[in-house]
Amino acid sequence: MADYQIQNLSFRYPGETEPALDGVDLDVRSGDFVLIGGPTGSGKTTLLRLLKPQVQAAGQREGTVLYNGNRLEDLDLRTAAEEIGMIFQNPDNQIVMHTVWQQLCFGMENLGYPTSLMQKRMAEVVPFFGMESWLHQPVETLSGGQKQQLNLAAVMMLRPKVLLLDEPTAQLDPIAASAFTDLLTRINQELSVTVILCEHRLEALFPRANQVLLMEAGRIVHQGKAETVVRQVWEAKAPGFAPYLPAISRLYLQMEADRKEGPVPLTVKAGKRWFDRYWVRRPGVFGERPEGIRGEAPKEEPLLQCRDLHFQYGKKGPQVLQKVSFTLHPREFFVLLGGNGAGKSTLLQVLAGVLKHQGGKLKTRLAPGDIGYVGQNPLAYFTRETVREQLEDRAKSLDLGDRERMDALVRLFRLEPVLDKHPFDISGGQQQQLVLALVLLADPALVLMDEPTKGLDPTAKQALAGWLGQLLEKGKTILMVSHDIEFAAAHAHRCGLLFDGGLLAVAEPSVFFTENYYYTTMVHRTVREHLPEEVTEEGVLARWAITSP
Amino acid sequence: MTGGFRSLHPLAAALYFSGLVLFVMWLVHPAYLLAAGGCLLLLHLQLDGGAALGKAWKGYLAMGALVALANPLVSTRGATILGYLGNRPVTLESCVYGLLFGLTLSVMLLGFGAARQVITLDRFLYLTGTGLPRTAFVIVMVLRLVPLLKRRLREIAAAAKTQGRLGGGKRTARIREAMELLNTLVVWTLEESLHMAVAMRASGYGSGPRSTFAAYRMEGRDKGVLVLLGGLALPILAGSLWGRGQMVFYPLLSGLELHLPHYGAFLFWCALPILMNIGETLQWQIIKSKT
């Protein structure tokens, strides 16, 4: 059994005036799958960490947390370590040991299990997770998805009754993320382990959860079954939470605005069933595709051209790039997609001049200083004690006499409130904005970005899209590497798919995603039989709006 | 080859190699050294077809040659003077001693090379862990940390390079830039290690005494080998205390007397892994021919 009863729980971090949690009530029954959503800083993580004694933050707490009817504070630490398992966002920060099997034993060793018991547990858990082939590998040879799977397996070794997960898939690519979610669902269904999960990407999780909470500023704003919450959010006209809903649900709610009852589709399957019927019921409601929903990229003299680019790490290393050819035009927004290890980041680093290609031609009329590079991890950029010093140091090294450009960037990225904070102490989104500001101080013509949407909440993602739009208006060119299909479909001028060392299928999103079967947006998978060229919610609505009054 | 000597319990393997190195250091005698060297060469061939040896043999030989050359130049002991270098005498005895001592060193290095293949990292950690669990735990954590730090440093260098740093220039500026990057690495790593500490606590670290997973079980064969090694070590040690298998170098070279039973025991010690490997292969041949 693993029940939680949370009554009027409030929490305040030391030195803060605003509470991080404010009067939270929540009942979790054994075997529940609870999904907690909400923007960064809404108190999700704080709430989750108050549910396990070992990871509670220091601060002022009010209210009660009952675990199986007893106060959580009275639970002894050993039982808490075994029964309440926790997975964190960054897969690397949870792995202490050198090889996979050592890490699997780590928790059991901590609790002093004898070897015979550890062997029995291993023999059970390793096949359940299908980890036999990489059991003896050193951890650094694993992909991010494998690492997070290892963390889950290591927790499962202790036979927990509850799993607490803090954005476990935020750092993973979509395929690894859905594999992880599938495992989690299996654990919940087959072993009846209670799951309490915080996440930004809710689309895939809504259908699996039997309780959804949406939080804002330390309070639970919406709560209930997934469908109820989807309707609540829509009817409350809370613009902050609309981006959290599945795109299919949003389409449904807009196009069936007069239907106040009935189930809201949450998955592609349910969505397609509804859309097929809608298509029959309302014939001729969709108009022609309007011209120029998104301005096409101007066809000018290319900014950068590569032909048959080749790169491999070391003489015997794998050939990461084999024959990469493409052209980048000025003022276009190009998104480079591709699976894990397809060489996306490598290609970006070759273009940025960090790595040197070994074959093929790279022609550009840009000087090295005209190419800005925003790497995957903002922390790699910070050398100073405060945000202000960091910006000033960069301006100085660029010999910028006046502060005009710097002030403009600080205003653009809304960095004023954090200017005197340490770059490590601001939120992930703000860190990324600071790096963008540092890169843009040099006024580069081309900005290269490595996975900028990773780990951002939907609100931050929208803000990023807004800034990128402004850069494009100012005449900059953007080349982005991403796993984020939805982001690419909604904002890119052109997309390319990197696979097996080559760049395939370069086209504008409506063509690029239309030709794909799996590797495309949820909206496209739902409507493609009737509206084959629409890949985004906006696209479908634009054609719907034409004829509807 | 994964079975045979390589699959021996780490404790037996460690005992075997420690004994071998001890005997080789003690018994400076051409017949003993050549026997040990020959057996180890064969063992290297059996273990990985001589791949590791192919990379390292030049180093082993160079170390031996260096000692062989250096000894007569440094040591002036010995009665038979061959000639003078400057005004220092070069003696026959120190030449021979140098040669044999160099051979000893090369054979020891050969032994370490083979030991490294048999006692892999996992086995080494198991050995350390049974006696010094904390030390073994720290070693494992460091092994995990090093590739992580390397990756972070690469990311930091990439960021710096694209911001126009690390481009050369004055030496003092370059040093200052390098220090800044290291500072970033340290702050970043401290930040991440806070998260790691929380994760470690979450999985019960510090909630009581730890146990250590013992991945290797002592089987009948391992016990047999241990008894055999003990049975061989006794006569070898006793004989060595009697002066068997040791030459006298100074002031005059002794003869190359060989006490056959003692030599035989030593030879058996050296050849044991090879015999085990051959036995393993034969067993497979028999199983295959029966089916």
Estimate what percentage of residues of chain B fall within beta strands.
Answer: under 5%
Helix and strand element order of chain B: HHHEEHHHHHH
Strand-pairing-aware structural class of chain A: alpha/beta
Fraction in helix of chain B: over 70%
Please state how the strands of the largest beta sheet of chain A are arranged side by side: 6-7-8-3-9-10
Strand order of the largest sheet of chain B: 1-2
- Helix tally of chain A equals 18
Can you count the helices of chain B? 9
Subcellular location (chain A): Cell membrane
InterPro entries (chain A): AAA+_ATPase, ABC_transporter-like_ATP-bd, ABC_transpr_CbiO/EcfA_su, ECF_ABC_transporter_ATP-bd, P-loop_NTPase
Protein name (chain A): ATP-binding cassette domain-containing protein
Organism (chain A): Anaerotalea alkaliphila
Key terms:
heterodimer, A: 549 residues, alpha/beta, Rossmann fold, 3 domains, globular, B: 291 residues, mainly alpha, two-stranded antiparallel sheet, 9 helices, 2 strands, extended
What would your notes on this structure say?
The complex is a heterodimer of chains A (549) and B (291). Chain A has 549 residues and is of the alpha/beta class. Chain A folds into three domains: 4-230, P-loop containing nucleotide triphosphate hydrolases (Rossmann fold, 3-Layer(aba) Sandwich), CATH 3.40.50; 246-296 and 522-549, no CATH class; 304-521, P-loop containing nucleotide triphosphate hydrolases (Rossmann fold, 3-Layer(aba) Sandwich), CATH 3.40.50. Chain A contains 18 helices and 19 strands. Chain A has a six-stranded mixed sheet. In chain A, strands 15-16-17-13-18-19 form a six-stranded mixed sheet, sandwiched between helices. In chain A, strands 2-1-4-5 form a four-stranded antiparallel sheet, with no helix packed on it. Chain A is globular, with a radius of gyration of 25 Å. The N and C termini of chain A lie far apart (55 Å). Chain B is mostly helical and 291 residues long. Chain B has two domains: 4-119 and 223-290, no CATH class; 126-202, no CATH class. Chain B has a two-stranded antiparallel ribbon with strand order 1-2. In chain B, a hairpin with a 2-residue loop joins strand 1 (81-85) and strand 2. The longest helix of chain B is centred in the middle third of the chain and has 32 residues, at 171-202. The radius of gyration of chain B is 26 Å and the shape is extended. The chains are: A alpha/beta (549), B mainly alpha (291). Chains A and B meet through helix 2, helix 3 and strand 15 of A and helix 6 and helix 7 of B.
